[in-house]
């Protein structure tokens, strides 16, 4: 680009060297608002255009003057007015917009001379030339005024019928900082139509805007870190061809953008190595990746739920086995020593009044003894036999009752444990079935979305063609924002 610029500069200067330079017989006199301007070098006429010393003209118009030696550019700035003129260029910048020049600025006799009329008009002057008297008069047109934009901003620039119309700039009321500089047309929009907008985050946009103030058309978006995107915009986003350049990380990406994202075949350039590659980029793959992440999350949630269910089942099984162990421990114990057996045994034994019988027999024995020892041996033996038989019978019945109670308890506990475990297993199986059904349905929906998006991506690839990357790069390299 620098070589091309140098070549163009040399060509222009060669052409200018052949252009006729006319010095008037009488020196040209310039008045600004009735005051004569003194120049250290007299004005000259080239191709019917008057050129005057740059610094003297800018200062007479009330502008701050600066000069960039590297780019050979003179700048004049006043509130709402920004003019940049480069030596030998057929165009100049007026409030950041490119305007044509009939005659470019040039250096003559070590002085930078700039076109008087276009500069004067840019500063809101009406310019008149009297060929007979060689007098140029410049009078303020009154077009450049201050306008209260809103509570936060004020406008300074060209005004028509009391509204911003033409070249101007927008400033913050609280700081006076420049916010926008370009072309305004209040009959179409309450926003700047084209120019440069500077944002609070350090980013800026130089290009065309819609009537609603969104980036619309061609432009350059510059990020606060110095990276730039030059291309087409729509609805405030990158839409269309574009070139993203990051000089810090030394790479460049060229291609087509859809809603701010690359789409289709993309040219990547490694600025440090001078290498390049072509890849296919799209806005569908990120959607596929997002759905795949959702699917992975669902699967993780399902696995977590199933693990919790498994731990619950293990907990239930452990409780069951503990109860079974307690039961088996009971079976290993002598049943007659268990409380269940003893309770049943004692309940039966209490129904037999053996103690009363024992008391009666003792009383009979005592009575017999009191009769001088004359005891009916047969009656006493018979009573003893009856008591022994009754006691044996009672113990037999009591033992049977105790064993029956013990066995019944064991059976009931076994049944209850088996029933509880079976019900618990059934409940857990039902919960597991429902969990799988819920998660499987969500996973199936994700799989369907992924399939649909993959099909859409295949169709996009099939109908996509490799863009003309050279043409896009040329567009970015030669971008300029033309005035109205």
Keywords for this entry:
484 residues, twelve-stranded antiparallel beta sheet, Histone H3 K4-specific methyltransferase SET7/9 N-terminal domain, five-stranded antiparallel beta sheet, single chain, 3 domains, 26 strands, disordered N terminus
Explain what the structure shows.
This protein is of the alpha+beta class and 484 residues long. It has helices spanning 2-18, 54-60, 116-122, 285-331, 339-349, 354-370, 377-463, 469-477; strands at 21-22, 29-32, 35-37, 44-46, 49-53, 64-68, 73-78, 81-86, 91-94, 97-100, 106-108, 111-115, 125-130, 135-140, 144-148, 153-160, 163-172, 178-185, 192-198, 204-209, 215-222, 228-234, 237-246, 251-258, 261-270, 275-281. It has three domains: 22-140, 2-Layer Sandwich (Copper Amine Oxidase, Chain A, domain 1); 144-282 and 469-477, Histone H3 K4-specific methyltransferase SET7/9 N-terminal domain (Single Sheet); 288-463, no CATH class. The chain is built from eight helices and 26 strands. The strands form four sheets. A twelve-stranded antiparallel sheet has the order 15-16-17-18-19-20-21-22-23-24-25-26, covered by helices on one side. A five-stranded antiparallel sheet has the order 1-4-5-12-11. α4 (285-331) packs antiparallel against α7 (377-463), α5 (339-349) runs antiparallel to α7 (377-463) and α6 packs antiparallel against α7. The radius of gyration is 53 Å and the shape is rod-shaped. The two termini are 27 Å apart.
């Amino acid at each position: 680009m620098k070589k091309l610029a140098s070549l163009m500069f040399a060509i222009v200067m060669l052409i200018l060297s052949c252009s006729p330079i006319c010095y008037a017989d009488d020196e040209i006199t310039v008045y600004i608002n009735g005051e004569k301007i003194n120049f250290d070098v007299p004005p000259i006429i080239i191709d019917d255009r008057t050129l005057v010393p740059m610094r003297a003209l800018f200062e007479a118009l009330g502008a701050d003057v600066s000069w960039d030696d590297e780019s050979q550019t003179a700048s004049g700035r006043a509130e709402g007015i920004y003019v940049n003129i480069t030596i030998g260029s057929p165009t100049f910048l007026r409030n950041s917009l490119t305007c044509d020049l009939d005659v470019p600025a040039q250096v003559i006799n070590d002085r930078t001379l700039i076109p008087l009329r276009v500069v004067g008009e840019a500063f809101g002057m009406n310019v008149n030339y009297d060929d007979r008297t060689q007098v140029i008069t410049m009078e303020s047109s009154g077009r450049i005024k201050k306008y209260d934009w809103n509570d936060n901003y004020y406008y300074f620039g060209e005004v028509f019928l009391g509204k911003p119309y033409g070249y101007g700039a927008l400033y913050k009321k609280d700081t006076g900082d420049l916010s926008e500089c370009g072309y305004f047309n209040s009959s179409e929009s309450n926003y700047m139509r084209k120019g440069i907008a500077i944002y609070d985050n350090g980013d800026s946009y130089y290009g065309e805007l819609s009537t609603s103030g969104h980036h619309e058309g061609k432009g350059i978006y510059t990020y606060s870190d110095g990276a730039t995107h030059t291309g087409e915009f729509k609805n405030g986003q990158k839409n269309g061809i574009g070139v993203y350049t990051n000089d810090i990380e030394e790479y460049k990406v060229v291609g087509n953008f859809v809603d701010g994202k690359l789409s289709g075949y993309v040219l990547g350039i490694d600025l440090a190595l001078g290498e390049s590659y072509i890849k296919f980029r799209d806005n569908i793959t990120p959607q596929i990746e997002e759905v795949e992440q959702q699917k992975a999350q669902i699967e993780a949630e399902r696995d977590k739920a199933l693990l919790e269910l498994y731990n619950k089942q293990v907990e239930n099984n452990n409780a069951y086995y503990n109860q079974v162990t307690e039961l088996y421990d009971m079976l290993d114990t002598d049943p007659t020593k268990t409380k269940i057996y003893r309770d049943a045994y004692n309940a039966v034994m209490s129904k037999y009044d053996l103690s009363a019988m024992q008391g009666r027999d003792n009383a009979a024995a005592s009575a017999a003894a009191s009769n001088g020892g004359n005891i009916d041996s047969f009656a006493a033996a018979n009573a003893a036999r009856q008591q022994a038989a009754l006691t044996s019978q009672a113990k037999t019945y009591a033992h049977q009752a105790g064993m029956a109670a013990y066995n019944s308890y064991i059976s009931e506990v076994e049944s209850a444990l088996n029933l509880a475990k079976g019900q618990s297993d059934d409940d857990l199986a039902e919960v597991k079935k429902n969990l799988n059904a819920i998660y499987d349905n969500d996973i199936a929906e994700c799989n369907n979305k992924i399939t649909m998006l993959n099909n859409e991506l295949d169709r996009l690839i099939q109908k996509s063609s490799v863009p003309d990357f050279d043409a896009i790069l040329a567009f970015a390299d030669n971008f300029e924002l033309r005035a109205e």
